[in-house]
Amino acid sequence: MIKALEPITINVDEFLAVNKFTVDEENAHIKLAGDDIKKLDASEFGKLVRVCPAGLYKEGEDGARRFEYAGCLECGTCRIACEDTIIETWNNPAPLMGVSYRFG
Question: What is the mean pLDDT of residues 47-60?
């Protein structure tokens, strides 16, 4: 007889908190198309809000949009979702920059 496993609860925020981020303030590795975030396609930006595991893309109840590359997990999800639309460039961060994953 197969015994049912007990559910496991994982707090992703706790795991992300142990990572170290070295932000390249002078060279953003992700750039959005255009200078005005308000003018970006709403459905495409909404896609990024939904798919980014780090929550870098935010849209307030008032419609205000924000984007911050500093906490990027470098997974490339945004690039895959919107590279041909509102992601202008997505490059790996420079050496010694970006996320350093720590486990445990």
Answer: 93
In order of start, what are the domains of the chain with their CATH numbers?
A: 25-96 (3.30.70)
What is the DSSP code (8-state) at residue 15? H
Which two three-digit tokens encode residue 13? 């925020």
Tell me if 89 sits within 8 A of 13, measured CB to CB: no
d(CA 2, CA 58): 44
- Distance in angstroms (rounded) separating the CA atoms of residues 49 and 58: 6
Please state which of the ranges 21-25, 53-57, 100-104 shows the lowest mean pLDDT.
Answer: 100-104
Which bin fits 38, alpha (ψ -120 to 50), beta or left (φ > 0)?
A: alpha
